[in-house]
Amino acid sequence: MIKDIITTTSAERLPNLEQDNIILSVEAVSKKFCRDLKRSLYYGLKDIVKEITGVNRAAYLRKEEFWALNDINFSLKKKEAVALIGANGAGKTTLLKIISGLIKPDKGRVTIKGRLAPLIGLGAGFNNILTGRENVYVNMAILGLTQEQITERFEEVVAFSEIGDAIDAPVKTYSSGMAARLGFACAIHTDPDILLIDEVLAVGDIKFRLKCYKRLAQLREKGTSFILVSHSTQSILSTCNTGVFLKKGMVITSGNVAEVINQYEDELLSSPIERVPGRLKQPVKSKQDSFGLDIEEVYFENEQGELLEELISGTFTNLCIICKAWQNIESFSVRIIIRELAQENNYTLVINSEDDGKIFKMKEGKAIIKISLPAVGLRRGQYYAKISLTSSLIYFFDVVESFPFTVRSVSKDMIESSFFQVREWHKVNLENQYSHE
Ligand SMILES: Nc1ncnc2c1ncn2[C@@H]1O[C@H](COP(=O)(O)OP(=O)(O)OP(=O)(O)O)[C@@H](O)[C@H]1O
């Protein structure tokens, strides 16, 4: 099913969705708002009259109007998860509303292939007077399910939302977290091709959020695509592979999600994130943004505990990870993936504490995890490490996407080697085979 929900430039050709595996395309979308309410109502009426009479909406700014979105272009592929990143007022929610068809753009169009489930606002458009049960039926019917299909899935929806008996109480008696949980449960049980998620997961408690992110990862495996709006770097990194950075209604950059977040954070903070050689400090997270266990800082140190700005092949080095637990953490492991800058797509080294039989637990508070490398095996070069704290319960607690570092070598010959081999030299005297030097 190809649903062209908004077409203001109908003469144009549809993008080749089939060929490019694209299931959603946003083309040259612009939206303006008016700061003055009275004037806004007046302009709104004028626009309606124009639409009825077949005249195009004004494509220019009238008094007090501004572009909330200006010429936005991006596409979403099957199984792709895109994060809309940007400061307050950047236009993220407006864009999601346009994609979901809640509001119309003034210019451009959105083309969608498949079933779209929007989770915008708490309770995803629930009616306050109706009970949770009635809302589930209405909501899932709007999302395209038949009465029989809803009845079949109803118990699963209630179980996932953990609403219990409150399912028969009016939604107006629900807390914001309960409404969000039920909204999320409805949306994921409609087998959507595309999920639009606007901050709704931020209201749940940590345990429920973890459950949601785990389910999102499973849905993505099965082929669902997402567009996520969140101010939580952690949510974005654990869910999305692509980022679109919006600023004042315009796309500043898009691409690899970690790189887009880095650029956004550098712009957001008055001073960029501290990135000194051999050490990386993460931006401080609030409890709300955390999955319970955060990485605060990573760095290298030598045997004497002194900070190392660069590593030397063959020497003793500790990789140190300062962790902060907001609550007692029963079990987690540490995974480190090291890549050489020049060989971007190949892993140079993958270390997983679980493979080494090391599963950690942690009490609420701070701790340093140290990985001792008796002899750094990497050859001379520029590297970057991805460091994550993972658990079987969740994709990961926290991750440092890119910790850059340099390895130096004291020997000239190391340049021709692929790695550093730890070795010892001996000479055995054959005349007297019992003595060796
Ligand atoms: N109905 C409206 N009438 C007038 N201005 C609006 C309307 N809706 C949004 N805006 C304005 O449009 C701009 C973009 O708002 P939007 O809610 O899309 O931003 P956002 O990036 O989602 O922000 P946040 O992170 O705070 O949710 C803001 O300046 C906002 O005040």
TrEMBL record:
Domain ABC transporter: residue ranges: 43-273
Protein name: ABC transporter ATP-binding protein
Similarity comment: family membership: Belongs to the ABC transporter superfamily.
Cellular component, GO annotation: membrane
Top-level taxon of the source organism: Bacteria
Source organism of the structure: Adhaeribacter arboris
InterPro entries: AAA+_ATPase (IPR003593), ABC_transporter-like_ATP-bd (IPR003439), ABC_transporter-like_CS (IPR017871), ABC_transpr_TagH-like (IPR015860), Bact_Polysacc_Export_ATP-bd (IPR050683), P-loop_NTPase (IPR027417), Wzt_C (IPR029439)
Stored SUPFAM superfamilies: P-loop containing nucleoside triphosphate hydrolases
GO function terms (MF aspect): ABC-type transporter activity; ATP binding; ATP hydrolysis activity
CDD domains, sorted: ABC_KpsT_Wzt
Keyword line: ATP-binding, Nucleotide-binding, Transport
